[in-house]
Amino acid sequence: MSYLELRNIAFAYGQNKVIKHVNFTIEKYSINAIIGSSGCGKSTLLRLISGFERAQEGEIVLDQNALSSQQVFLPVQKRNIGIVFQDFHLFPHLNVWKNITFGLKTKNKQAKVNDLMHLLKIEDFKKRMPHELSGGQRQRVALARSIVTEPALLLLDEPFSSLDNELRKSIRHEIKDVLSQLKITTLFVLHDLDDVMALSDQVLVMDGGKMVQKGSVNELFSSPSHPKVASLFGAYNLVSLGKEDGPLSQFIQVEKGHNSVGIPMDAFSISKQKEDIPAFLVDNYFNGKTNVLRFKIGDLNLRMEADEVPPPEFRLNINANKFIYFDG
Amino acid sequence: MKSNKGLFYSSLFISLFLLLPFYFLFFKGIEGHANEWEHISKNLLSQYVLNTFYILLSVGALCLIWGVFPAYLLSRFRFFGSNFFKWALVGPLAIPTFIMAIVYSGLTDISGPLASLSRFLFDSPHLLRIDILNFWGLSLTLSFALYPYVYLSSLIAFTNRTRSFEEAAKSLGAKNNSIFFRITLPLALPFVLSGLLLVLMETLNNYGAMKYYGYNTLTVGLFKAWFDLNDLTSAVYIGGILFVFALIMLLIRQGTHFKGEKENSSSTNRQKLSGIKNALATLFCTLLFGFAFIAPCLFIITKGIKKFGQVVDGEFFLTVVNTIVICSCSAILIVFISLYFSSSKRWLKSTLLRNLFEMNNTGYAIPGAIIAIGIVAFAQLATIHSGLLFWSFILMCFGFVIRFLSSGFQTIDNALKNKSIAQDESAMSLGARSWGVFKNIHLPQLKLPIIIAFSIVFIEIIKELPLTLILKPFNFESLSTLTFQYAKDEMLEMACVPAMFILIITIVPNFLIQKALND
Description:
The complex is a heterodimer. By secondary structure, chain A is of the alpha+beta class. Chain A has helices spanning 42-50, 96-101, 110-119, 135-147, 165-182, 193-199, 217-222, 227-232, and strands spanning 4-13, 16-26, 31-35, 57-62, 65-68, 81-84, 153-157, 186-190, 202-207, 210-215, 236-240, 260-264, 268-271, 277-286, 291-297, 300-306, 313-318, 324-326.
């Protein structure tokens, strides 16, 4: 049974429709990530779930209790949802201990707070003020503050955006371990694909205020059902088809009546046959595993992977069976 | 930046020059002979100190009520007229403190509108009349003129500084009352205190209202020692005590900073009030706006129009021109020095200059009367004849620059700080020198801050009384000294004419500020 459920949620700031009839569910104890480009409504969705905004349509249900609907609107304080904000928002006038224990109703949970601080490796900073902490330490304090109250759901809004690359790599694994150990149902808003892959059991992809696809990282990689998903997960060349089937049809037969086609990079192979499609190498770089070639067929700019770098003019084969067509 | 020795030494010279009156003040205090000090310290000083303390306390408390409460209401709730009140409540800043005090004495005296209304309703002038020429009346009128400082700083704090932390507290289950006292108030406190500090400095600096209400504070004592007892050295001593008051307030303010705080706005909408709450919020703002702005403005304008013909003549227009010229010249000078200092600070990274600029910026905390005495002492030692119009004009500008430099400097320096240093480096890599970077890169981007700085300083100068009173040459009047002169001579209605001109003239810089902020 689903744990958090959003049914037909719609929200607008004035005339600006930010969330357009979004539906999704997440399972108990799972770690989920919402991903999408800037302004697609990810953070607004988090504000609707947490109760900072009220959806104009639809229903939000957590553990079979309605949080928000046309009749019900539970205030933030009563939702028992922990939030880690993008800039952490640690109270600047309170030390680390007071920040973490701020939301505790009873103060006799010292042992529990100490355990949590130990788990997050911040037990030595109890007396420090927020400005005396590094970015990573602040991140851990913000997490501790949100989970010490044993929230029914934890929301994290771009929690790694203010950390440098090295730190985010180490901290995301630590956070995943803590969340799994404490069994907290979690919903991240993320924009970095590495973070998404490292953390999530389920990924929800948003575009233009709509939820366009959800599934495991594997599913989204292997079978994107929306051009946004294909473009986000990066292994596809997105080519518009349009009414005349687009420029691609000069070189290979494409199905009619679709808006665009996703061509995976492994659909191309370098050929020595003179009758195959002529291509021109524009650029190439090594991505750590193989060579990524940027090349042109006619006016089309495309990418493929290859073990060896071909000469500036080369021929290639395209496997049309690997094409994925999009109508959206 | 290369070849900036000239910039360093010129900045050093200007900065030290602006501090000169304080050295002279210091030496005057050490070397001078205080004939009347024994009499003052034995019979008057304790009263001056206590009175100053009490008036600071009462005005401060009232300004906290008038300032913090509406700021909180307007940042959190929507109610009838809330969008209008948000900017309208700043209005009283256009009315100089001493004029507010004079106007309220006029509103409540036996021939004023309250007495007339009472006469009309009850056939007696006394039933509705309030005696305002006392400590509480003085406190109330000063608070009406000064509360916008607290209101503005609180509004900024409640709108931009505390919201996201309140949201974090809400997500942790805290109730609204608990959030207000544990999060909102402590976080807003440094901002509220900044506004309060300005209120207290203005109160400390005030001469016109205190003198008119017959309330002897340290500033009034300073004037009395100098002009009535003819003892400049005793005036310097009193100035020293005033300075200690100012210093204590500055130190309290310094102690309330939270490190690591930053701007934090949130998209949460203001909650809509309805029913009785809506009515009460609107009523509170209407009454405050009515008493602090509409009533004094109406009084000034009606009386001003009535006496227009009796006061306005060729000499009066000369006063208007004098006022505009001296305010404009001083404001332009302040803008130039601010640009110079901000650029030096940006390029030279000199700790010495930085500290000197900090000292130059404490001028706002020093009562105008002290600065004026320092300048007079400087003029005496430099054998400048302050009675001559030209030199008086220069000395007055000098005084205004020292007192109001911080208002211009903060605005321009903050704007320049926001421009990435990479801009300068890009320009230099393309061959530009310091002057070229300043002229072609900084100046075009600083147009709005320059307009804002000029306008703020212009308004501050036109309202300033004690410094102008001390430094003005014989037979020279500005609009504020003329207003004070009429009021002192019990010609209240006549005083409203120059007061009305002050209101009219400040419309232009106020408009410029609004326009610049909107742009």
